[in-house]
Amino acid sequence: MFEIQKLCFAYPGREALFIELSHHFKAESNVLLCGENGSGKSTLLKLLCGRLTPDAGRIDSAGTPLFYLPQDGDNRI
Q1: What is the pLDDT of residues 39-55, one digit of tens each?
Q2: Which of 63, 2, 5 has the alpha carbon at shortest distance from 27?
Q3: 66: DSSP letter
Q4: 10 within a domain of the structure (yes/no)
Q5: Backbone angles phi, psi at 50, to 5 degrees
Q6: Alpha-carbon gap, residue 31 to 4, rounded angstroms
């Protein structure tokens, strides 16, 4: 299950692909992404699997933010 809340993303120097996109993908459901070339299909998949980081908004997987890094002493960058 994924939940997208007010997602914003643009490649550097280009027009925004997503401006405050919100959607809830139910568990065990089938999803079809279709659209013209350059409409953001592959970019959305890269955001959902963590290969790209959104400019704003959040993506949760089963209630856990995908881009969350706990702030404790054991984490190293």
Answers
A1: 999 999 999 888 999 99
A2: 2
A3: T
A4: yes
A5: 85, 10
A6: 14
